[in-house]
Amino acid sequence: MSARNVFYAQSGGVTAVINASACGVIETARQHPEFGTVYAGRNGIIGALREELIDTSTQSDATIAMLRHTPAGAFGSCRYKLKSVAQNRAEYERLLAVFKAHDIGYFFYNGGGDSQDTANKVAQFSQQMHFPITCIGIPKTVDNDLPITDTCPGFGSVAKYVAVSIREAGLDVASMCESSTKVFVMEVMGRHAGWIAGAAGLAAEQEGDAPHLIVFPEIAFDKTAFLAKVQESVVKYGYCAIVVSEGAHYADGTFLAEAGSKDAFGHTQLGGVAPFLAALIKQELGYKYHWAVSDYLQRAARHIASKTDVEQAYAMGKAAVEFARAGKNAVMPTIVRDGVHPYRWSVGEAKLSDVANVEKKMPRDFISADGFGITAKAREYFAPLILGEDYPPYANGLPCYARLQHTLAPKKLPLWNQ
């Protein structure tokens, strides 16, 4: 059987380790003759629609290897959700036309729930059109909200970043609280699922350690209970360090910090819950405060990535190619937790139809009874995911990251003008 080419694309918010998955795909495909050229979509699935295919064969093995320790999306990502075939059949026909023109037989889509939905739709449509494409999803999301997989590549590293950050910031506030700042609020990502906020709780290993409060999207915000907890912490420890998820909301579902606009996936634009809470504390309790929004810093921090996360991200990319070799289709490799003491994991498998558009939230028994902390069960889950350091190489005091040349394959089709 002659070799067929590969299309790989990155989708949604990028992570510190998504390029490690790309590295796993490209390095593994290069080892097997049934895979021809690996093309990467420039800016995700948009690259396929526009026929902007980055030819990775122009990159040396050494450059591809550097992807393993390079953050963000080396080929560009996108927030672009394909509609159903009934709503926009032309998009699917365009994808197949591009795949046919470039003899692409394998589609690896590296992203979250929306991306797995896209890969599943393409798999179904290609079968209907009698031009079957092997479609394999590759899990990615800092939010850790994909079902079935024990954890999501990208989460372990952001978890490590926020736990380290609140520990360091907590020490700073503790130093100043006698005569200055008494409250610090750190905002982290997490629209509906509080996994990142919960992971910050790892920093509190002893009585009085930061964070003293965690505000989860799974628990409706209670202003009175929150302020009472803040005051209790200041009285008891001299200061209060708080981690809040961007998706914190009231009982009626209204976000504490709702900007009002929507992104391409239809999600409400969030931001600013940290200054909102800080101002509330100042108004009601009078404490001097500082706040910080981790924003892109938390998901771009490859310099402090979890070694466990890097290894799992690479393994998911490698497994995707091996699944394709085995003739599997419309599936996604998963991470399976095989043991806790010591932590052991292996590669599992899930159907894309079971993963698509399903959001996994923090279990209630991971959150303390008062709703402001994590339980021992949560700590046992989180702890191994941040283990190990995998520092990138440094030069001139700064990390060295891959700089890829986006050499595009020659176009063979008319321009896509939608």
Can you give keywords for this protein?
418 residues; single chain; Rossmann fold; 13 helices; alpha/beta; 5-stranded mixed sheet
Care to describe what's here?
With 418 residues, this protein is an alpha/beta fold. The chain folds into two domains: 4-141 and 303-358 and 388-399, Rossmann fold (3-Layer(aba) Sandwich), CATH 3.40.50; 155-300, Phosphofructokinase domain (Rossmann fold, 3-Layer(aba) Sandwich). The protein has 13 helices and 15 strands. The chain has helices spanning 18-30, 45-49, 61-66, 89-101, 113-128, 155-176, 195-200, 223-237, 273-285, 295-300, 307-325, 352-355, 376-382, and strands at 4-10, 35-41, 53-55, 104-111, 134-139, 183-188, 213-215, 240-245, 258-262, 268-270, 289-293, 331-340, 343-351, 394-395, 398-399. The strands form five sheets. It has a five-stranded mixed β-sheet with strand order 3-2-1-4-5, with helices on both faces. Strand 12 (331-340) and strand 13 form a beta hairpin. Helix 1 packs parallel to helix 11 (307-325). The longest helix has 22 residues, at 155-176. The two termini are 36 Å apart.
